[in-house]
C-alpha cells in the first residue's frame, strides 16, 4: 500500500526541516478551525515558553492531545485504525472505574479477609457466568456490575454475589491464583523494603543441608529461557491502562514526583533536597523529567497517539527505555508505602500501540523531529554549520546524536564494532555511504527479525551486547533508523577512536567538536 499523506504533504517532507514546518502549519490550521482560542494559546506559549508555568504547559498539552490524534489520523489516512484503537481503550474502561469504587472499596469494606476465604468462589463464578451469558470474564463482570449499580434496589442479590466474588478473589489464595493474569481483582500490595521480591521463598531443603539461608523463585514465577527469544513480552493494553488509571495524575497538584523527584520539606534557607530510599538511593525521579502524569492522562482517556507524543517531548528515544531498562520513575512514585505505578510498562505499551498502527513507525519517527506538544522546540532548529563527531553508538551516543541534529548540527557517529548495513530501501544509505531514497514503513513487523535468528548488527553498544532476553532488540533497528534516515547523519562502524581515527585526524577532517560516549 502506498503512503498518501493529506494536506499536500509528501513523504520526503517528514524528513526535512522545511517539510516539518509545513506539517506544523497544517496542524495549526486544523487546530484553528476546531478551536481558535486553543490555537492562539499554543502560538502564544511558543513565543515565550519561559513565561508558561508547568501547570499551564501540562493543561495545554492535554487539551491539544485529542486534536493531535485526529490530525495524525487524517495526515496518514488511518482514521478507522485510530478509531478502533480508541474504542479498544473505551471498551476496557469499566475495569478501572469498577476496580476502584467496587472491588477495592466496597468489597473490602463489606467483608473481612477471614470471612472472604470461606466463600465458594468457584460456585459464585458459575452463578455469575450464567448471568453473563455462559462465560465469565473480568470485563463481563465489570460491565454487568456497572449496569446493576444503576438500580441497586432491583439488583441487590446479584450485587451481593459480585461483592462476595470480589472479596474471595482479593483475599483467598485460590481466588488470587484464578485471577492472577487479570487486573480487576487486585489491590496494591504494601511495600516491605526488606522483602521486595515477594515471589521468592526460603529454600528449606538447602537450609537443612548446609545451614545457609537461600531464596528461590516460586515455580509459577520462573521464566524459562529458550534461545534468544524474549522471556518478557511486556504488558498488553489492559495492563497498561491499569497502570495509567492507578496513577493519580498528580501533575495538577505539582506532586508528580515520578517526573521531578520526591523532595524533603524545604528548610528555612535552602531548596528542598531529594529524599533517599531505605537503601540510600536518591529519589530524583525520571532523569529526563518525562511528563509521566500527563501521558497517563491521555492514555487513560483513549488518546494513544498524543500520549506517545507527550513521552517524546522529553524522551524521544523511548524505544530504548523499555520496561526492562530503567525504573527511576517508579522509585520516586507518590506511592511510597504501597506498590508504585509501573510506569515503564505503560510507556512501552503506549509506544507499541502506536507502532502497531498502519504507518506506526513513521508516526513515531515523525514525533522525534516534529512535536507540536513541545512548546520549546516543536521542530529542528536551522542548520548551524557545525559538525560533531560522536564516538560510541550506544545509548548515550545515539541519544546525543539525535539531540544534536535537532539543534541543527551535522553528526557523524562512529563505533569500534562492525556495524552491519541495512537495506538502502529502509535506511536510505547505499553500501558506499551515499544517500538514497527510502520507502515508508507501513507495518512495523517488516522491520522485525526473529530474535533466535537475528545477527548482531553492531549498533547500540551495551544495548546490543549487554542485554539478553528481557528486552526486544528489534527496538535497536527502530532507534537506528530514527537517526540513519536523516540527511544530517552518517554512521561508520569498525572505527577505533585513538587508533583508526585520532583527535588530530578528526579536527583535520573539519569536525568542530568531538563527543566521547564510550561508556
Give your account of this protein's structure.
Helix 3 (54-75) crosses helix 14 (304-314). The model has no long low-confidence stretch (mean pLDDT 94). The chain contains 22 helices and six strands. It is mainly alpha-helical and 519 residues long. The protein is globular. It has a four-stranded parallel beta sheet.
Distance between the termini: 42 Å
What is the rounded Rg?
Answer: 26 Å
Instruction: Please identify the structural class as seen in this structure.
Output: mainly alpha
The percent of residues in helical segments reads 40-55%
* Order of the strands making up the biggest sheet: 5-4-3-6
Shape descriptor reads globular
How many strand units? Answer: 6
| N-to-C series of helices and strands | HHHHHHHHHEHEHHHHHHHEHEHHHEHE
Q: Can you summarize the main beta sheet? A: 4 strands, parallel
Strand percentage: 5-15%
Number of helices: 22
Mean pLDDT: 94
Low-confidence stretches: none
Task: Please give a handful of descriptors for the protein shown.
4-stranded parallel β-sheet; two-stranded antiparallel sheet; mainly alpha; 6 strands; single chain; about 525 residues
Amino acid at each position: 500500500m502506498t503512503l498518501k499523506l493529506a494536506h499536500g504533504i509528501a513523504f520526503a517532507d517528514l524528513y526535512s526541516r522545511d517539510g516539518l514546518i509545513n506539517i506544523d502549519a497544517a496542524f495549526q490550521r486544523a487546530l484553528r478551525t476546531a478551536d481558535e482560542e486553543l490555537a492562539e494559546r499554543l502560538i502564544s506559549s511558543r513565543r515565550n515558553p519561559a513565561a508558561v508555568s508547568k501547570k499551564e504547559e501540562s493543561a495545554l498539552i492535554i487539551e491539544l492531545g485529542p486534536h493531535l490524534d485526529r490530525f495524525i489520523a487524517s495526515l496518514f489516512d488511518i482514521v478507522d485504525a485510530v478509531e478502533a484503537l480508541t474504542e479498544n481503550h473505551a471498551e476496557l474502561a469499566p475495569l478501572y472505574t469498577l476496580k476502584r469504587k467496587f472491588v477495592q472499596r466496597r468489597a473490602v469494606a463489606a467483608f473481612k479477609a477471614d470471612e472472604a476465604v470461606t466463600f465458594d468462589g468457584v460456585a459464585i463464578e458459575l452463578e455469575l457466568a450464567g448471568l453473563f451469558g455462559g462465560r465469565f470474564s473480568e470485563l463481563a463482570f465489570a460491565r454487568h456490575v456497572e449496569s446493576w449499580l444503576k438500580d441497586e434496589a432491583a439488583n441487590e442479590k446479584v450485587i451481593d454475589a459480585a461483592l462476595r466474588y470480589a472479596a474471595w478473589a482479593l483475599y483467598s489464595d485460590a481466588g488470587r491464583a484464578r485471577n492472577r493474569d487479570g487486573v480487576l481483582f487486585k489491590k496494591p500490595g504494601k511495600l516491605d523494603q526488606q522483602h521486595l521480591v515477594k515471589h521468592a521463598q526460603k529454600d528449606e531443603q538447602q537450609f537443612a543441608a548446609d545451614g545457609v539461608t537461600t531464596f528461590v523463585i516460586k515455580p509459577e514465577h520462573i521464566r524459562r529461557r529458550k534461545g534468544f527469544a524474549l522471556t518478557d513480552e511486556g504488558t498488553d493494553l489492559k495492563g497498561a491502562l491499569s497502570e495509567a488509571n492507578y496513577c493519580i495524575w498528580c501533575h495538577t497538584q505539582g506532586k508528580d514526583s515520578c517526573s521531578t523527584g520526591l523532595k524533603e520539606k524545604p528548610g528555612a534557607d535552602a531548596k528542598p533536597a531529594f529524599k533517599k530510599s531505605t537503601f540510600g538511593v536518591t529519589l530524583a525521579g525520571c532523569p529526563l523529567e518525562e511528563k509521566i502524569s500527563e501521558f497517563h492522562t491521555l492514555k487513560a482517556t483513549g488518546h494513544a497517539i498524543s500520549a506517545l507524543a507527550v513521552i517524546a517531548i522529553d524522551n524521544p528515544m523511548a524505544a530504548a527505555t523499555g520496561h526492562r531498562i530503567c525504573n527511576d520513575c517508579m522509585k520516586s512514585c507518590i506511592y511510597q508505602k504501597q506498590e508504585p505505578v509501573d510506569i515503564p510498562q505503560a510507556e512501552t505499551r503506549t509506544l507499541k500501540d502506536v507502532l502497531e498502527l498502519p504507518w506506526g513507525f513513521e508516526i513515531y519517527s515523525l514525533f522525534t523531529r516534529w512535536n507540536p506538544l513541545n512548546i520549546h522546540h516543536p521542530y529542528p532548529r536551522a542548520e548551524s554549520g557545525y559538525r560533531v563527531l560522536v564516538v560510541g553508538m550506544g545509548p548515550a551516543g545515539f541519544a546525543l546524536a539525535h539531540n544534536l541534529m535537532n539543534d541543527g548540527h551535522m553528526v557523524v557517529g562512529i563505533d569500534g564494532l562492525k556495524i552491519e548495513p541495512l537495506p538502502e530501501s529502509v535506511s536510505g544509505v547505499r553500501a558506499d555511504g551515499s544517500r538514497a531514497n527510502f520507502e515508508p514503513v507501513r507495518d512495523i513487523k517488516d522491520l522485525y527479525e526473529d530474535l533466535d535468528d537475528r545477527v548482531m548488527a553492531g549498533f547500540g553498544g551495551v544495548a546490543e551486547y549487554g542485554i539478553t532476553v528481557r528486552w526486544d532488540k528489534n527496538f535497536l533497528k527502530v532507534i537506528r533508523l530514527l537517526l540513519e534516515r536523516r540527511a544530517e547523519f552518517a554512521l561508520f562502524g569498525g572505527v577505533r577512536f585513538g587508533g583508526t581515527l585520532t583527535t588530530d585526524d578528526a579536527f583535520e577532517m573539519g569536525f568542530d567538536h568531538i563527543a566521547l560516549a564510550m561508556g
